[in-house]
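ok so I'm stuck.
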Amino acid sequence: MKSAGVTTIRERLAEAKASLDYLDLERSRRADPEFGKRIEAHIVWRELLDLEFDDAEERITRLCDAAEWALALVS
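replied:
not stuck anymore, here's the structure
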């Protein structure tokens, strides 16, 4: 079973991939290798940052869970 977070990430990445594919097709159609490069870079960086934030949030959650567990042991 997939978690909701994994599904959301996959959906977001699928949408980003579709946007990048569109830019690539439009770039080919226009014969303009620079068409959409700024937008493409923005999409890629946004997704990389979102993945990093998701990873950091997951790590923080695990640390908090571990701290709560440890606190429960000493209480």
